[in-house]
Amino acid sequence: MVLSAAGICSRRHAENLIRQGRVTVNGAVAQLGQKAHPDDEIRLDGAPVLARQEKVCYLLNKPAGVVTTLSDPQGRPSIARFADALPERVYPIGRLDRDSEGMLLLTNDGDLANGLMHPRYHVAKTYVVSLDGEVDASLLQRLRQGVELEDGAVRFLSVTQVPPQAGQPRLRLVIAEGRKRIVRRALTAVGRQVVRLVRVEIGPLALGDLAPGAVRPLTAQEFEALRAAITAAQGSSS
User: Fold this and answer.
1) pTM for the structure as a whole
2) Residues noted as catalytic
3) Domains of the chain
């Protein structure tokens, strides 16, 4: 897929752009499944698609109050201010809702993005959640048994209590799915309100002590470890 290879978007988003008629090949509207040749002129919304970029991936510690989009019609603070400061054209892999914080990956690698976002592949994500109420054995058992929601059961891979912060009890939750606001909805379903939610790990990657709003590139070792985690998840789902 030329658009994802050029760092424009993920493969799935590229298909949507083609369906919307926003992509042209040599002046004609592109069709799904159409093959492109190296000498073809490919444009998105009339702008030429640049040649293939080096594949990169950055780790952003997204602050609370920032939406995970490169443009926001409501004018809210968005991750565009972080992405625009990078030398490559990148886009976010998945989302963190506006009130949530922590690890967000930015990339121009469509295959990497597709591997992490595909609903069949399950790369684990870890969250540390501060709650407004007591954490007791009953709550831990309910979460470990699974929580029923209107769109299906939520199954956590791990549920552990961690030391409180600012007087608020905290849980460390590991989950291998990406339904919208899934952690918040699961905790609401068991009668707990989330005060703060921070994503601290994606697969083998850890947020560490990266400051809120800071961005850093993945190391070569981290990049390969992330690819290996995706490959392992793909193998386990087949």
Assistant:
1) 0.78
2) 97
3) 2-48 (3.10.290.10), 57-120+205-237 (3.30.70.580), 125-202 (3.30.2350.10)
